[in-house]
Backbone:
């Protein structure tokens, strides 16, 4: 099996006395798009800059393909790593036109060939070769920046929050286009972002970063379904946490007996379970089903959420999601039905 | 280079992060050494003054400084600076508001005309007035003439701010019930505070250092008194004592300016407001405003130009001195080019150090490099004379020494412009170039250099123009037999041969007017455009 | 890019233009520090260059400033000759031993009283102290008998004074020598409070002509220049000669000396000889400068009051000193 496109082990970096990366491990498979997700200021950009070679690590190893580019004894200069970089604001060279920008990383002999045209077509900007960066929109600039990074066929492309500088309306569209470009070119890409929706919708693998290390790396669905702890669950989306008694395969909670997944290796009996609001359905009051009163509702058009008060003092409120046309009114009494299994988090002893 | 729809939070956050990262980078010692050498050069005049003070001894200092004559100078100088600066501020704001925020007819032309007086050196302006009538040779006349000459230093930055103002603020105030005057005073004016203060302090510093204009107007200030002392005793202690007081006054102003503006000095005026502000309607009062503006431009710009043309045509005491004119022009151009080159070269390492490798040392070196704002030309010239006569006789009386004086005087100007140029080439571009396969030097040449060359050219051009119109240092340091346009003009104007002086002044204005105007607008008038003395 | 091209064009232009003004420097060069007026100096210099084939570089300045500059420059000074407007700077340099002995034939050209007492410098031209006044503002009866009268109260607001003008320094010395220190101090204070301050004699002339002040003390030739400029019929001011050996009738001698540190002493001496030769003096009187020649037999410029009738006080260069006393007195009186 060939080496992964990128392999990082125990990476550490501090600025001044402040530790930014505290032993980070990551692997990126060939041809995949991996997203590193983390809140602002957690060190994601530092990670990218270390991989690109713009900074030196304090400790740890970085391998790009088979080549060790960074460890205690080695430091390979950025121009020799074959790692492309797309900066947050595109950072196109203003004194060159689009074609010259894209051709920048190509050897002189290659510049005249059709590679530039090929890349411009790939990103859907074929007619804009003679334009200058200030004449392009934000989305167009990002795409040119991507084409420029892809031109010398790098082993790995790094994208630093590439959609952050765009208008919200444009973002979805540009994201999809960039995704398509990367797939079609077969490049391996590592993207950092603080937007969970972006990470979950774009990437093949999402690695969540917290306190300078990777907490969990998995495909989006697995990550969303089975986050490794309650904090991560809340970070990835709305999470409903219920305290409960844990037994084998089920738990007793304020919403009744719920089937659970997740290993209980400690054999603990107390803990909490995690549900997503879309798993909790509001129904007309039924006998035997747990009940609640609707406190407030939020209508988003395509769907809606309701805040529901339970009579249980251990868990006073939960959030349930409903389709827009099935939203209960405030003050209604509803029965709550849980779909699917809950994820158990045993309390540590 | 701005992408459409930039998110403000992400930009400021990443800028902070970039600065934190930059600080952690090791600073190349060679760069620090060069920048330190530049700072030392600039501190030379101050060192000279200190040395003089120490060697003279307290009794002599007491005798020279604390006497009624110095008291008169102090009162004259401070009073004039206070009155003229206030007048410039009021005038500058008024003109800026009329041009930028009302529906004045012919606004674009007025905007240009209102800024043009700064391109005529103040000593030429006072020459024009004096050649017509000696009535202006007293406090009131002096205050009026220097106000007319220097108000653009306030007008330009305030106009720039008013141009980019977000109309939402004023509209909110109006919707809360504030009338137009109150809105102006409590909402609009405070936003121009920084531009006002910066411009006003710049005017004050220029006035403290002004020599030629006051000499022509027979108005005694510290600079004219220092020059008189120089004429009489060459480098006697009285001259350096007066110079010390002057420098202290300037330093006080400079510290005030740096303190009040701080980092805001480098903030580019945001011209990307989404909507242009509504303009006030003038109605009938537009005639009054037009008349006022016409009078202002007529007095500040028209009068000097017309007078120059009159004297050139009339000829006066001598025939048109073609050979002398060409020779003086040649000297002016040569010296200007030399100064431009040297100053830009000196400013570059300091600018690179402060933008790419910020640190405490870098900050201190940069502040030192701004010191020449507080050093009048005469003080720099005197100190270089004394130092070269006693320590470096080989340099004494040579052209290189004069060029060094110009470089010291123009360093702050070049520094501001060079910093602006470097801001066009953020380090991320070089990094991306490296990720695309360029080595460090190659990245510098292919990416950074093309970006900063136009800005460096602008810096050099500004220094060139300031040097062509420089008077005082040239008077003291020019090598024997070298005459520039400014010194030839002065030789004639100060002996009241107005006709003979006119061609030199005319050529000076012709060379420097348009480029000065263009460059000053380009740099957003943050840099004080000239040190015309 | 545009800036670079413009810069290159300017550089070419500069080289061209400065080439117009300069000439080859294969000949001998004399460096002259001149406190005299440009017109007269240039005339003398041109005539000398024509006669001797040498080239002369001139640094213009003022009496005391140039003298002090030479003192400060020391042996590194490029100056070969100092041409002064008055005698104090020459005495200053002579007193410090910086002037070379002038050749005797050169000294003999002018009367001994107009030469340095020790033969260190030679007199070149003479100027008479006068009162310039505006007849519309002062009647002939009000004219002062002595220059000392100008300190009296009745002259308040009517006078002009130029304390930084080097021509003023010997006048103060004269009063000091003739009437004593106390009288000089009183006179300076009185004059200062009566007079408006001007930068130089040209300023005084313009003010009197224009009617801003009634009278001022200058050297005679400034008035003659003004008369030439506007025409004899149009000149409004008049000259009043104090005479009677009053300090106000002081004759100021303009002289020249060669520096010991000169790089070319022979050429310096030739220049000095030229200054007091018939050709040199004649070049001076024809230059549009209205000073009195000192060499016998040279015709003075037309229209001047005859030199012999001036009734100047008997004060020599030694009496007038090197200028340090007047400067200190003027500082004390708050004029400087």
Residues:
């Amino acid at each position: 099996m060939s080496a992964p496109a990128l392999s990082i082990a125990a990476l550490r970096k501090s600025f001044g006395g402040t530790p930014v990366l505290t032993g980070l491990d990551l692997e990126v498979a060939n041809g995949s798009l991996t997203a590193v997700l983390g809140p602002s200021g957690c060190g994601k950009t530092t990670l990218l800059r270390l991989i690109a070679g713009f900074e030196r690590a304090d400790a740890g190893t970085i391998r790009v393909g088979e080549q060790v580019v960074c460890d205690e004894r080695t430091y390979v200069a950025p121009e020799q790593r074959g790692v492309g970089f797309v900066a947050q604001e595109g950072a196109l060279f203003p004194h060159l036109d689009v074609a010259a920008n894209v051709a920048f990383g190509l050897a002189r002999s290659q510049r005249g060939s059709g590679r530039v045209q090929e890349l411009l077509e790939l990103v859907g900007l074929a007619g804009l070769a003679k334009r200058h960066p200030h004449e392009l929109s934000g989305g167009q600039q990002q795409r040119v920046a991507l084409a420029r990074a892809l031109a010398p066929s790098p082993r790995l492309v790094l994208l630093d929050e590439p959609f952050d500088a765009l208008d919200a309306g444009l973002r979805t569209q540009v994201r999809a286009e960039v995704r398509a470009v990367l797939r079609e070119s077969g490049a391996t890409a590592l993207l950092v972002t603080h937007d969970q929706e972006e990470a979950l919708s774009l990437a093949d693998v999402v690695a969540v970063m917290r306190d300078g290390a990777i907490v969990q790396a998995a495909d989006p669905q697995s990550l969303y379904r089975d986050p490794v702890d309650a904090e991560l669950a809340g970070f990835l989306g709305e999470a409903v946490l219920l305290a409960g008694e844990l037994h084998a395969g089920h738990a007793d909670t304020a919403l009744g007996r719920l089937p659970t997944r997740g290993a209980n290796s400690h054999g603990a009996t107390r803990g909490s379970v995690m549900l997503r609001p879309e798993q909790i359905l509001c129904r007309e009051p039924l006998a035997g089903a747990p009940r609640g009163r609707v406190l407030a509702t939020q209508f988003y058009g395509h769907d809606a959420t309701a805040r529901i008060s339970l009579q249980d003092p251990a868990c006073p409120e939960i959030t349930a999601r409903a389709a827009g046309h099935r939203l209960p009114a405030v003050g209604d009494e509803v029965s709550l039905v849980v779909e699917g299994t809950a994820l158990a988090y045993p309390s540590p002893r | 280079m701005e992408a459409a729809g930039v998110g403000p939070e992400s930009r400021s956050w990443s800028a902070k992060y970039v600065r934190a990262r930059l600080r952690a980078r090791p600073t190349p010692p060679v760069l620090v050494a060069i920048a330190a050498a530049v700072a030392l050069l600039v501190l030379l005049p101050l060192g000279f003054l200190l040395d003089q003070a120490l060697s003279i001894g307290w009794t002599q200092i007491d005798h020279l400084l604390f006497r009624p004559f110095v008291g008169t100078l102090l009162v004259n100088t401070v009073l004039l600076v206070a009155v003229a600066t206030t007048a410039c501020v009021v005038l500058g704001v008024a003109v800026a508001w009329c041009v930028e925020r009302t529906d004045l007819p012919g606004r674009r032309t007025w905007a240009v005309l209102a800024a043009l007086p700064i391109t005529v050196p103040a000593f030429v302006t006072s020459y024009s007035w004096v050649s017509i009538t000696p009535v202006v040779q007293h406090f009131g006349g002096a205050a009026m003439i220097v106000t007319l000459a220097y108000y653009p230093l306030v007008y330009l930055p305030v106009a720039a701010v008013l141009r980019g103002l977000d109309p939402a603020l004023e509209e909110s105030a109006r919707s809360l019930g504030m009338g137009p005057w109150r809105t102006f005073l409590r909402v609009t004016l405070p936003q121009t505070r920084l531009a006002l203060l910066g411009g006003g302090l710049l005017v004050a510093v220029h006035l403290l250092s002004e020599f030629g204009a006051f000499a022509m107007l027979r108005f005694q200030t510290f600079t004219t008194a220092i020059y008189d002392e120089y004429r009489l005793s060459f480098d006697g202690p009285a001259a350096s004592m007066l110079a010390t007081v002057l420098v202290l006054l300037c330093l006080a102003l400079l510290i005030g300016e740096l303190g009040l503006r701080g980092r805001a000095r480098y903030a580019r005026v945001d011209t990307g407001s989404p909507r242009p502000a509504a303009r006030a309607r003038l109605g009938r009062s537009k005639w009054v405003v037009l008349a006022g503006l016409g009078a202002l431009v007529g007095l500040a710009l028209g009068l000097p130009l017309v007078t120059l043309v009159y004297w050139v045509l009339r000829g006066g005491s001598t025939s048109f001195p073609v050979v002398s004119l060409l020779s003086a022009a040649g000297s002016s151009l040569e010296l200007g080019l030399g100064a431009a080159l040297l100053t830009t070269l000196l400013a570059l390492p300091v600018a690179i150090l402060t933008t790419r490798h910020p640190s405490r040392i870098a900050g201190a070196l940069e502040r030192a490099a701004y010191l020449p704002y507080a050093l009048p030309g005469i003080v720099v010239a005197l100190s270089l004379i004394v130092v070269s006569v006693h320590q470096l006789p080989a340099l004494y009386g040579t052209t290189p020494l004069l060029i060094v004086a110009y470089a010291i005087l123009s360093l702050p100007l070049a520094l501001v412009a060079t910093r602006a140029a470097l801001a066009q080439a953020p380090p991320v571009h070089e990094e991306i170039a490296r990720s695309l396969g360029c080595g460090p030097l190659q990245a510098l040449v292919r990416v950074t250099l093309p970006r900063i060359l136009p800005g460096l050219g602008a810096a050099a051009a500004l220094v060139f123009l300031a040097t062509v119109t420089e008077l005082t240092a040239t008077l003291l340091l020019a090598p024997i037999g070298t005459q520039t346009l400014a010194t030839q003009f002065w030789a004639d104007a100060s002996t009241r041969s107005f006709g003979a002086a006119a061609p030199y002044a005319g050529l000076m204005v012709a060379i420097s007017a348009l480029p000065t105007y263009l460059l000053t607008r380009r740099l957003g008038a943050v840099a004080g455009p000239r040190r015309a003395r | 890019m545009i800036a670079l091209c413009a810069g290159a064009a300017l550089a070419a232009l500069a080289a061209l233009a400065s080439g117009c003004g300069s000439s080859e420097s294969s000949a001998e060069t004399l460096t002259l520090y001149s406190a005299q007026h440009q017109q007269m100096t240039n005339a003398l210099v041109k005539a000398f260059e024509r006669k001797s084939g040498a080239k002369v570089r001139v640094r213009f300045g003022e009496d005391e400033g140039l003298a002090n500059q030479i003192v400060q420059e020391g042996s590194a000074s490029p100056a070969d000759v100092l041409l002064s407007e008055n005698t104090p700077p020459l005495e200053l340099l002579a007193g410090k031993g910086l002037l070379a002995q002038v050749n005797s034939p050169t000294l003999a050209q002018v009367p001994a009283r107009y030469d340095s007492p020790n033969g260190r410098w030679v007199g070149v031209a003479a100027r008479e102290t006068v009162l310039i006044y505006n007849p519309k503002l002062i009647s002939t009866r009000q004219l002062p008998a002595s220059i000392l009268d100008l300190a009296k109260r009745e002259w308040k607001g009517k006078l002009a004074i130029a304390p930084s003008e080097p021509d003023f320094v010997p006048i103060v010395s004269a009063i000091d020598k003739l009437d004593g220190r106390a009288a000089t101090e009183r006179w300076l204070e009185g004059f200062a409070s009566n007079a408006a301050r001007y930068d130089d004699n040209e300023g005084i002339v313009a003010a009197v002509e224009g009617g801003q002040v009634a009278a001022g003390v200058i050297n005679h030739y400034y008035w003659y220049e003004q008369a030439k400029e506007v025409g004899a019929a149009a000149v409004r001011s008049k000259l009043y000669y104090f005479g009677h050996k009053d300090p106000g009738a002081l004759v100021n001698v303009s002289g020249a000396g060669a520096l010991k540190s000169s790089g070319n002493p022979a050429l310096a001496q030739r220049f000095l000889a030229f200054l007091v030769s018939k050709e040199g003096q004649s070049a001076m009187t024809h230059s549009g400068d209205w000073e009195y020649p000192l060499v016998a037999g040279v015709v003075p410029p037309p229209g001047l009051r005859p030199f012999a009738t001036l009734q100047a006080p008997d004060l020599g260069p030694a009496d007038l000193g090197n200028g340090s006393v007047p400067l200190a007195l003027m500082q004390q009186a708050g004029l400087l």
Notes: Chain B touches chain C through 50 residues (CB under 8 Å).
